[in-house]
Amino acid sequence: AQSVTQLDSQVPVFEEAPVELRCNYSSSVSVYLFWYVQYPNQGLQLLLKYLSGSTLVESINGFEAEFNKSQTSFHLRKPSVHISDTAEYFCAVITISGSARQLTFGSGTQLTVLP
Amino acid sequence: DAGVIQSPRHEVTEMGQEVTLRCKPISGHDYLFWYRQTMMRGLELLIYFNNNVPIDDSGMPEDRFSAKMPNASFSTLKIQPSEPRDSAVYFCASSQIRGTEAFFGQGTRLTVV
After folding, report:
1. How do residues B14-51 score in pLDDT, each as one tens digit?
2. Within an 8 Å CB–CB cutoff, is residue B102 touching chain A?
3. CB-based contacts of B68: which residues, under 8 Å, 6+ apart?
4. Interchain contact, A44 vs B101, CB within 8 Å
5. B50 touches chain A (CB under 8 A)
6. pLDDT tens digit string along A59-84?
């Protein structure tokens, strides 16, 4: 069985400061990894994903995440946050076996950017 | 494409009533997922379909919950009878068989009083 752990439920940070949201996963098979963002009263939107290739992936709004297989981690980082980055962030894992597809989410991290 | 469409956006009902949530996935997507989001439990996968066939319904909390996908463009999640603890935001998502990204609808906020 797979699982996703987001250790920090709340991360407050000042505007223009760097931030790291942590994500660890466990799975007995190869995985695809995702970060989703949820703004208030909205659905989840894909922020970035790792499928294969380069272990460092980037989003269009300055976030990046690095897949670390040995540490089974996929931490999300941004060097300088904006007020508009305030949202809840979910790490997710997909394992694929035949036609079965299990998409599992972490418990979420609420990022609050303070002025 | 308009994305995943869920209806209604908000539903308030009395305990004991039947509730039906609806979802239209993105055309061409072969997978459809139903999730429930609460403060206490976060995002929980309830059930998912592949080519209209339920693959895993182990997340469905009780027999009061049922889901159907009569065709590739429509799915329902029904709660009968509803209880106050069913109050949550219910999300539908879809993805392609070869793709891996799941696209989410805006959700249905259910309140059972």
Report:
1. 999 999 999 999 999 999 999 999 988 889 999 999 99
2. yes
3. B75, B76, B78
4. no
5. yes
6. 988 999 999 988 999 999 999 999 99
